[in-house]
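User: Can you help me understand a structure? I only have the sequence.
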Amino acid sequence: MENNFFKLNILKQIKKNQGNELLIKNFLSKNEVKKLVSIEEKSGKYFVDRQDGRKRSLALNGSNIERNPKKWHSEIQKIILPKLKKVIPRFAITKSEFPPHYSTMNSLQLCMLIQD
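Assistant: Let's start by predicting it. Here is the structure, written out as tokens:
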């Protein structure tokens, strides 16, 4: 299979179809970030677990993909959901979107794919 990811026309299509970026300063406090990082580090269950990195869903069981925020880990739900609803009142993750997740590589990042 040919790798098309870096072809200019593919990049143009991606940019055309994606939503605008939104930077929210101080969205999470340091304590909230520490709690979220702790949940990921203690999880032990991932839906992707490779030598180059891993992905953990926001569900109670990190290996289960979960788009429905009501089924997220209760601590993750308490920290993130009210803040998301303030910024995006009709927050929803459609079936066609990759579910929100933690993604680790050389450093831990909380990756949330959100689209209004």
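Now, to help you interpret it: Helices lie at 8-17, 30-43, 74-87. The first helix runs from residue 8 to 17. Let me know which part you'd like to focus on.
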